[in-house]
Amino acid sequence: MTNSPTVVLEAKNLVKRYGSVTAINGADFELRAGEVLAVIGDNGAGKSSLIKALSGALVPDSGEIRMDGEPVRFRTTLDARHHGIETVYQDLAVIPALDIASNVFLGRELRKKGFLGTVLRQLDKPRMRAESMQHLTDLKIGVKSATQAVETLSGGQRQGVAVVRSAAFGKRVIIMDEPTAALGVRESGMVMDLIRQIRERGLPVILISHDMPHVFEVADRIHVHRLGKRTAVVDPKVRSMAEVVALMTGALEPSEEEKNGGA
Amino acid sequence: MTTRTDTISPAPPRTRRDWTWVARQPLVGPLAALILAVVVFSIGSPRFLSPYNLSLIGQQSIVIGILAVAQTIVILTAGIDLSIGAIAVLGTIVMAKTVQSAGGVGALLIALVVCVAVGAINGSLASFLRLPPFIVTLGTFTAVAAASQLYAGSATYPVTDPLLTFFGQDFGIGAWRTTLGVGLLVVVYAVTFYVLNQTAGGKHVYAVGGNPTAARFTGIKINRTLLMVYIMTGVIAMIAAWAALGRIPNADPNAYQTANLDTITAVVIGGTSLFGGRGSVVGTLIGTLIVGVLRNGLTLIGVDNLYQNIATGVLVILAVAFDQIARRRTQ
């Protein structure tokens, strides 16, 4: 490779201890522009702690996180969001009784201009509906109207609303934490499509998943987490699923290049 | 790598006959019940639909109706407030006892501070300490009711101050006359409806009750939302206390003993879910009117007060059963 790829988000030597338990043990991380990076690891390998550190849900004891090469400190998830990092959680983080537009803009509502908005604090519902519908259409999620209550949607559509919320506001990085864990086969496939569409728009995606076929379907690179740190970054076109599982459990040693973060 | 071209389409049409759509039109049931009650009683008693009687139903609904607004907001957050009626009673006594020295405006302000303080205590315990609202408000109910008795010296205080009894005044057009208290009831509902449906704060109330985890992930400050909700119950309790002195110009520590539970009755009959995140003040207004119409109508056709209680009780259980079954069906 002649020109080195642009790194959007990286972490060096992160450590997080809870008493005698070390959740993150000197972990490195690197996300490049426009890629889908899968993060996999056995239960207890510490991948969720790593992701929490990157999304601001956890403050590491030591180590460094950089965005575009600049050191950043996330003390809360809001800090990470201000840097353009949005997270989609596995358990369909939507409010069932509220409509789609309210869900998409939840916590970031748009208010009307002038007296109605500043003094009476009235929401600009037409604009929120129109923008929600635009985002939904962009990601090919077919709903009739943004005024539909989310509870009337299927599981895949609900996750679609959660993804739209992140894609609409995530300016730099989208983190998806087991986005298909609560979904059926067909609906999981739709979420995989959403991930591809987000990548096509140029946003890098971090995908945490247990589902190897999904990972191999969409990931450009695979970050393998083991014993609290990154053990390898592999190319899914080079390694087979069986080999990746072996790397994950320690049955197989990664190559030097993979150890150092891949090509 | 292939990319699917189909879009995420709406859920497949239901094949089996399904009535859960009724659950998604939450006002249909309560409204039908209200209309049914009005029709039955207007047939049963010629006096029922008279302007005087309709105004009476309105006036009898003022205090519980206003308090039920506060109860609705609390229940929307999946909480419950057992102390709301007791706070209002304390408010009436504070007004009555301070009006001599502080004047009408001063008495209202002191009562507002007291009511908001109790609401803030409820809210702090329910949010920052994460205690169950049922227990917190049971505790404040007991303490506040006792405080009212102590402060009143177990006596009652007639109120003559024109500002404190302001909402007892008449207004109206022709034969249709009612008190300003009924107008106040309508205003409290309208303002709350606006806040819940047209502002971000209102949406956050639904979010905190509907899915607190998701609410936190989207950056909503749950504790602050809950605290604000309980502070608002204090404000509304003070307004209800003011309206109560307009209706009966006498502050009595033994008044409105059943108000706490009556507000829950109105909210539940109005279709708001006790599990939080689902419901509206419009439903609560209908619920309040159903209870008001039922009691008034049964009195007119000569049914004993105790039978009225039985009818109300059955209605509450039916309403909750309906909510439960609808929830199970939609999940």
Automatic annotation (TrEMBL), chain A:
Keywords: ATP-binding, Nucleotide-binding. GO terms for molecular function: ATP binding. SUPFAM superfamilies: P-loop containing nucleoside triphosphate hydrolases (SSF52540). CDD domains: ABC_Carb_Monos_I. Gene3D superfamilies: P-loop containing nucleotide triphosphate hydrolases. Residues 9-252 form the ABC transporter domain. The keyword Acyltransferase does not apply. Pfam families: ABC_tran. The keyword Transport does not apply. PROSITE patterns: ABC_TRANSPORTER_2. It comes from the Bacteria. PANTHER family: CARBOHYDRATE TRANSPORT ATP-BINDING PROTEIN MG119-RELATED (PTHR43790), SUGAR ABC TRANSPORTER ATP-BINDING PROTEIN (PTHR43790:SF8). This is Sugar ABC transporter ATP-binding protein. It comes from Arthrobacter silviterrae.
Automatic annotation (TrEMBL), chain B:
Keywords: Cell membrane, Membrane, Transmembrane, Transmembrane helix. The chain crosses the membrane at residues 27-50, 62-95, 101-121, 133-153, 173-196, 226-245, 306-326. The keyword Chaperone does not apply. InterPro entries: ABC_transp_permease. Coiled coil: none annotated. It is found in: Cell membrane. It is a multi-pass membrane protein. This is ABC transporter permease. It comes from Arthrobacter silviterrae.
